Amino acid sequence: MKNTMRITRKEPMAYFASPIAYVVIAAFMAIMGHFFRLIVPVTGEAFMRGVFANMATVLLFISPASIGHHG
Questions:
Q1: pTM (2 decimals)?
Q2: Helix, strand, coil % over all residues of the chain, rounded to 5
Q3: Is 40 contained in some domain?
Q4: Could you give the number of structural domains in the chain?
Q5: Burial readout 6-33 (b: 16 or more C-beta within 10 A, e: otherwise)
Q6: What average pLDDT does range 27-38 have in this prediction?
Q7: What is the DSSP letter of 45?
Q8: pLDDT per residue over 12-24, tens digit each?
Q9: Which of 17, 30, 49, 50 is the Cys-Cys partner for 39 at CB 3.0 to 4.6 Å?
Q10: In this structure, is residue 50 part of a structural domain?
Q11: What is the pLDDT of residue 70?
């Protein structure tokens, strides 16, 4: 259990020490913002249902970019 806690603390620190974390977050935000921008004119209101429906697909492609050997 002690090793698990050590890894749990170490991994996020190592991940955010590299620029890849910020690139992945920025890409995710840009893609989700684009979906939001496309959905609002169609519905006429800022419904988040369409954005959340597309989020699973976006995460399916973004997640492998964030996982890798970084240290």
A1: 0.67
A2: 85, 0, 15
A3: yes
A4: 1
A5: eeeeeeeeebeeeeeeeebeeebeebbe
A6: 89
A7: S
A8: 787 778 888 888 8
A9: 50
A10: yes
A11: 54
